[in-house]
Each structure stands twice: as C-alpha cells, then as structure tokens.
Amino acid sequence: MPVALRTQVGIVGAGPAGLLLSHLLALAGIESVVVENRSRAYCEARQRAGLLEAGTVELLRSAGVGKRMDAEGIEHDGIYLQFLGERHHLDFRALTGGRWVTIYAQTEIVKDLIAARLAAGGAIEFSCSDVAVSDVTSDRPVLSYADSSGETHVVSCDVIAGCDGFHGICRPLIPGLSVSERTYPYAWLGILADAAPSTDELIYSRHADGFALYSMRSHDVSRLYLQVAPDESVEAWPDERIWAELQKRFAVEGWSVSEGPITDKSVTAMRSFVAAPMQHGRLFLAGDAAHIVPPTGAKGLNLAAFDVTVLTDALAAWYSGGDATLLAGYSQACLRRVWRAQHFSWWMTSMLHRFSDASDFDLRRQIAELDMVVSSPSAAKLLADNYVGLPLT
Ligand code: FAD
Ligand code: PHB
C-alpha cells in the first residue's frame, strides 16, 4: 500500500529553485514537500554557479539564510574585460550607484538551504525514484515517488512547483508549450583548483584562440573556464594543457594565473532556452526547468531566485484571501525578467567568444564592441546595470 500524504505545495527538485521556494513558503506559513531524485551529498557537491547579483544576496539575507554567505562570500565591485592583450576594469559601484556582486558558490547556498529546511522540520526526500506528477488541471494535483527504501508515497497537493531543472519531468506536462532556443557552437571546460586567485575580481578574456573566464570560490580556490569545442572530452585536457591554455588566454605583461592541484573538471554545453507559459493548471515551473542561459552573464541561479519569489508572493496572496490574480500573472511576471537576462547573456556570449566561421569583419566588429564598452561610460553602465541585476521587483 502506498503511503498517502497531504501538503500545500509539492516541489519537484532540491536545486536552488526548489529549496529556496520551500524556505520562502515556510516563512510565509505555507507547507511544502520537496522530492529529489539525487542524494543529498550529490546535490551539495554539484559544481555550478558562483556569482550572485546584489538582489539575490539581499533576498538570501532577508530570508535568514545569509549568515555564512556574509561571513565567507566575497564582494566584488566590478569585473575586468580583456581583449587584444589588454585588461580593462569596469567599476560597477561607480557605474550603478553603489551596486555590487558576490562570489558565493551554489554548493554553499544549497548546503545552507538544506540545513535551514531540515532544522525547521521541513520535508526533503532525497534519492527518490519513479517521481511523477499528475492531475495538474484538477484542484488536487498529485506528486508520487518511491523513497530511498523503495516505499511508494502519493502526495495530494494544492499546487505543484516544477523546480526540476532542464532535464526534469515537469516541463513536458505542459501542452502546447512554446520553446525559443539557441545552441552555441562551443562549450566551457570548467576547473576548480586549489590555488589562491591571482586576481581580485573576475576576468572575462576574449582571445583569438577562444574565451576564458577567471573566477574563484574563495581566497584559496580558483574557478576557471575555457571555451572549447561543443563535443570536447575532458580526457583531451590533461592538467598541463589546461594551465598552458589559461596562461596564454589571460596573458598580460608581468602577471600570470596562479596554478595548483585541479580538483574538478567538467564540460558544459552552452544554450539559450525559454519555455512559455511557465504555468499549466496548478503546475508552475521555476528556474532551469523553464529557462536556460549561457553562463557568460552569470544569470541562471539569479533568475531561479526571482521566479520563486514571484511564486511565493502569488501563493501567499492566494492562500491569504483567495486572490488568484498574481498566480495567473506568474508566467508573464517572470518572463519579462527572463528575456532581459536572455538578451544580456547572449550579448556577453557573442561579444566574448570566438566563432569558428567568423569573418575578418566579424572579428573587427567584436573588438569594436568591446572597445565601446570599455571606453563609453553609457555602454559600460548598460553592461554594469545588467550584470549586477535589475531590482527584484
Ligand atoms: P537545478 O540546479 O538543475 O536543480 C534541479 C534539481 O531537480 C536537481 O537537484 C535535480 O537532480 C532535480 N531533478 C531533476 N529531475 C528530477 C526528477 N525527475 N525528480 C526529482 N528531482 C529531479 N547562475 C548564476 O546565477 N551565476 C553563475 O555564476 C552561474 N554559473 C554557472 C556556471 C556553470 C558552469 C553552469 C553549468 C551554470 C551556472 N549558472 C550560474 C546557472 C545555475 O547553476 C543554474 O541556473 C541553477 O542551478 C538553476 O537552479 P534550479 O534549481 O532551477 O535547477
Ligand atoms: C562562476 O564563478 O562559476 C561563474 C562566474 C561568472 C560567470 C559564470 C560562472 O559568468
């Protein structure tokens, strides 16, 4: 016999979107159950985002999960853009009237949110199988799964939130979905290294042999990315080749990338993707389940945070007085910000990467665009405003 359960919001996925949604709902007095098919250890170790917009930092802080972020996160006042062997600084604080960004890894946000939910008695089921969602057009949608010991659970919900990432099961449940998509003819090889970063802020470098990004996770751990072919295998990149390529793509007189043992290596495809609407009946998609951006603009996790704040506010209004206006406008409210981020991420990506079929005209136009960003205060401000993130409301 399956175990029958009842909750207000059934959440599929314990990534940043699902966990933050569960936490924000709890603060609003709304119950939820989070169902995740991976183990807790896997969720806490998956290497992804590192850069948070100021608005996301403020959201995590105001939701009471910012303590470790405030102690261990690193505030950055800007970024460097490098091209033709020269490095230029963009001062975001000056350009945006005091806004900034913070380096704090997605792994740490996930750990903080899991700890906060479990400490508050929240329900997160890890290592589930056969996760399924049904009856989303009824007023009792159902979330079912087998727990880690194989026992089947059937959860009757008011609403289901599909926070299950790009390869999840929820998006395909929306009939007549419209999809806008673009793939890019390159990927990123990302590494983590036990090496104190030799830069104080992130460096986005456009090089004739391909883009490179110098990021970090702490004062002792560097996170670096190289543009590679879309079908590149990690095996083709022994450590010495990675360091040589990084030194070349970041080269400036009298400076070098600091090297150290590489502890993680992976290849990520680049994609722009938007599915609309983000809602069907009582199923609401949030985060990567509905939209993907290439990581050059560092927007994915920040967008996921925005979606779940909109959804929380809409659900709180609905539960408190039966007003479904905000719920009905959920998709539209999210998609406006999603498309702003899509444009920004596409712009950063196309301005900084090398295209294999680029003509001489394309290359010179790309340099002219970078030159405009570093020499025109209004162009620099446009980049800075988008990078630090538009206000959350
Ligand atoms: P996910 O993190 O994908 O979480 C979805 C969860 O659902 C996963 O735990 C998955 O296991 C689970 N799931 C899937 N299917 C099922 C199922 N059937 N049943 C149950 N559970 C399921 N964003 C930024 O804002 N800043 C950055 O600096 C940044 N850098 C990035 C760098 C890289 C290399 C990459 C790849 C991404 C980066 N991003 C960045 C994007 C960011 O990592 C994602 O946007 C973010 O993970 C989205 O969170 P999510 O919760 O929506 O989805
Ligand atoms: C990261 O630190 O992983 C990171 C930072 C900025 C980006 C992408 C990734 O644009």
Explained architecture:
This protein is an alpha/beta fold. Helices cover 36% and strands 28% of the residues. The chain has helices spanning 16-27, 40-45, 54-62, 67-72, 92-96, 106-119, 239-249, 300-321, 325-328, 330-352, 360-375, 377-388; strands spanning 3-6, 9-12, 32-35, 51-53, 74-76, 78-83, 86-91, 101-103, 123-125, 129-134, 142-146, 152-156, 159-162, 178-193, 203-206, 212-216, 222-228, 262-276, 279-280, 283-285, 291-292. It has an 8-stranded mixed sheet. Strand 10 (129-134) and strand 11 form a beta hairpin. The longest helix has 23 residues, at 330-352. The protein is globular. The mean pLDDT is 97. Residues 12-18, 35-38, 43, 48-51, 106, 131, 163-165, 168-169, 188, 190, 268, 287-288, 295, 298-302, 304 line the site of flavin-adenine dinucleotide (FAD). Flavin-adenine dinucleotide binds at residues 12-18, 35-38, 43, 48-51, 106, 131, 163-165, 168-169, 188, 190, 268, 287-288, 295, 298-302, 304.
